[in-house]
Write a structure and sequence with these properties.
mainly alpha; Four Helix Bundle (Hemerythrin (Met), subunit A); DinB family protein; DinB/YfiT-like; MST-like
Length: 164
């Protein structure tokens, strides 16, 4: 893979895109009902995770880096609200919104240097920090989603249940 020997920016962007793809794949093969299934007490569902990842893209890159106010982006007020599913949220609509948010994030980031700083409540952060944060956050959520999808497939596939 080319990112293994890439320069710093290409490496960070490549690693971020790997995690974006992992999050995007969470909904592959799931119908709307399965994608909405709550298997844990929190609002964490496969569909909710992808919806939350869209929120993360918009908060960090569309709002913080591109400096578009959060209310103009239609972002919920809290992180927890970003997992809330509306009746119109489907595998197709959430997936499309996520892909569009990622593409816009790439466009926004391309116009800035890694050392450029942006406001955050804890103090200024560089684009380099934002990339690192996004890689960690998306990797964590992809892992959560993998577990949920595995639970869903085990619950619906009698052969998988018999193997446990």
């Amino acid at each position: 893979m080319e990112i293994f020997v890439a320069g710093e920016r290409a490496l960070l962007e490549g690693l971020l895109d790997v995690q974006r793809e992992e999050v995007g794949r969470l909904l592959s093969g799931l119908d709307d009902a399965s994608a909405r299934a709550r298997l844990v007490p929190s609002l964490t569902t496969p569909l909710g995770l992808v919806k939350h990842a869209t929120f993360v893209e918009k908060v960090w890159l569309h709002s913080r880096v591109a400096r578009v106010p959060r209310d103009e982006l239609g972002l919920p007020g809290t992180v927890d609200e970003s997992f809330v599913l509306e009746p119109e949220d489907t595998v197709g609509s959430v997936s499309a919104a996520y892909r569009a948010a990622c593409e816009r994030s790439r466009e926004v980031a391309a116009a800035h240097d890694l050392d450029e700083q942006f406001p955050w409540h804890r103090g200024p952060v560089s684009l380099r920090f934002i990339y690192g944060h996004m890689i960690a956050e998306l990797a964590r959520h992809a892992g959560h989603g993998d577990i949920l999808v595995e639970q869903l497939s085990t619950a619906t596939d009698p052969q998988d249940r018999a193997a446990t």
